């Protein structure tokens, strides 16, 4: 605390990211990173971009990357916005589109950055409770609001909504911006990008951090009607003209163009997820049906905090949230098969210890 702080800073409750440990020997299943390296073509493009041209500013409009994303999603480049991670894209969306007279709606259990942005930008919001199976019920959003944001698949549950439900939400709120955060959509969800042509109120947010294995490069995107994208460009150009550096744009463009790497890697992760899910169920865990690169699971006779701490003592990091509705759940990122095995072995040991 300091008397030099702006008044707003005193009120902030910042987001707390998952631990990035210094120790390399931990099995790291806590931040939903990809267990495999990025596309070799992306790494080569980054190396190729590492030359004297770094003395020059990058393209402020990241046109090559927006063109690659437009090709991938079958939209036009002016329907694509890019930023320094989807967290930055989300921040611009909160400031540029979600600050309305009526409150913003989002689920009580979802990406915990949403209320943080509301605090930063002074946006009023209401949370809508997930049902008893921790699912989003579109009917519950039929209430006065200024805008809606949903993560689909939701985090940290991993549960996905069907596209028909998203479309119903859009139809029921034609006068409000509706943002769908698709950070995990490539692991089994259906993207709402196909609905953009028919719904000028829809904005879809994606990231290269999870399914493209580029969390360290910091690249995210938003796709929607030109008028929505224009709002984001205005905010961006009032904040930072160059959110993507030369290496990020080169690597991200090559990563988007490498369809073979993408298809192979996400298939591998989905396979490991289904195997890990079976393994956890055999140990007595309840595992929510996941369309993401993580599982959300609890054991009927163990506390989430206890399991989290015991796993850490055995060198396995998973994510635990101290929110009462989900306090006994663990969020487990899908690792390599060897890492998933290490988790199951550690859990078997812990369950065994706790039986005595
Ligand atoms: C990981 C994640 C993001 C942020 O991704 P970055 O592009 O790395 O900033 C956004 N939304 C959700 C739901 C996420 O899980």
UniProtKB/TrEMBL annotation:
Catalyzed chemical reaction(s): L-histidinol phosphate + 2-oxoglutarate = 3-(imidazol-4-yl)-2-oxopropyl phosphate + L-glutamate
Enzyme class per UniProt: transferase
Transmembrane intervals: none
CDD domains, alphabetized: AAT_like
Residues bearing the modification N6-(pyridoxal phosphate)lysine: 210
A biological-process GO annotation: L-histidine biosynthetic process
Cofactor: pyridoxal 5'-phosphate
Subunit description: Homodimer.
Gene behind this protein: hisC
EC nos: 2.6.1.9
GO molecular function: histidinol-phosphate transaminase activity; pyridoxal phosphate binding
Organism field: Lichenicola cladoniae
SUPFAM superfamilies for the chain: PLP-dependent transferases (SSF53383)
Stretches assigned to the Aminotransferase class I/classII large domain: 25-347
Protein name: Histidinol-phosphate aminotransferase
Family statement drawn from the similarity comment of this UniProt entry: Belongs to the class-II pyridoxal-phosphate-dependent aminotransferase family. Histidinol-phosphate aminotransferase subfamily.
Pathway listed: Amino-acid biosynthesis; L-histidine biosynthesis; L-histidine from 5-phospho-alpha-D-ribose 1-diphosphate: step 7/9
Pfam families, alphabetized: Aminotran_1_2
Keyword presence, Cell cycle: no
InterPro entries: Aminotrans_II_pyridoxalP_BS, Aminotransferase_I/II_large, HisP_aminotrans, HistidinolP_aminotransfase, PyrdxlP-dep_Trfase, PyrdxlP-dep_Trfase_major, PyrdxlP-dep_Trfase_small
């Amino acid at each position: 605390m300091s008397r030099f702080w702006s008044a707003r800073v005193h009120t902030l409750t910042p987001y707390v990211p998952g631990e990035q440990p210094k120790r390399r020997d931990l099995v790291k299943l806590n931040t939903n990173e990809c267990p495999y390296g990025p596309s070799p073509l992306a790494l080569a493009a980054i190396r190729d971009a590492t030359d004297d041209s770094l003395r020059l500013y990058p393209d402020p409009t990241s046109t090559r990357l927006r063109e690659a994303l437009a090709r991938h999603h079958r939209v036009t480049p002016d329907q694509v916005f890019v930023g320094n991670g989807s967290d930055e894209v989300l921040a611009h969306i909160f400031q540029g589109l979600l600050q309305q007279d009526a409150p913003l709606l989002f689920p009580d259990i979802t990406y915990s950055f949403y209320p943080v942005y509301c605090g930063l930008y002074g946006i009023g919001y209401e949370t809508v409770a997930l049902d008893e199976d921790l699912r989003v019920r579109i009917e519950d959003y039929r209430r006065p609001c200024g805008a809606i944001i949903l993560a689909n698949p939701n985090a940290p549950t991993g549960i996905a909504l069907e596209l028909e439900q998203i479309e119903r939400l859009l139809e029921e709120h034609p006068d409000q911006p509706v943002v769908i955060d698709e950070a995990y959509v490539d692991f089994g969800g259906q993207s709402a990008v196909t609905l953009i042509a028919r719904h000028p109120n829809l904005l879809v947010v994606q990231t290269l951090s999870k399914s493209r294995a580029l969390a360290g490069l910091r690249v995210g995107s938003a796709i929607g009607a030109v008028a929505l994208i224009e709002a984001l460009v205005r905010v961006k150009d009032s904040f930072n003209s160059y959110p993507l550096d030369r290496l990020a744009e080169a690597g991200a463009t090559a990563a988007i163009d490498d369809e073979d790497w993408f298809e192979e890697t996400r298939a591998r992760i989905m396979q490991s997820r289904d195997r890990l899910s079976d393994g956890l169920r055999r140990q007595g865990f309840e595992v929510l049906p996941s369309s993401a690169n993580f599982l959300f699971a609890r054991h009927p006779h163990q506390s989430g905090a206890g399991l989290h701490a015991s796993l850490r003592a055995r060198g396995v990091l998973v994510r635990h949230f101290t929110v009462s509705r989900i306090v006994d759940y663990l969020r487990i990122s899908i690792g390599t098969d060897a890492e998933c095995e290490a988790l199951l072995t550690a859990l078997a040991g812990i369950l065994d210890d706790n039986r005595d």
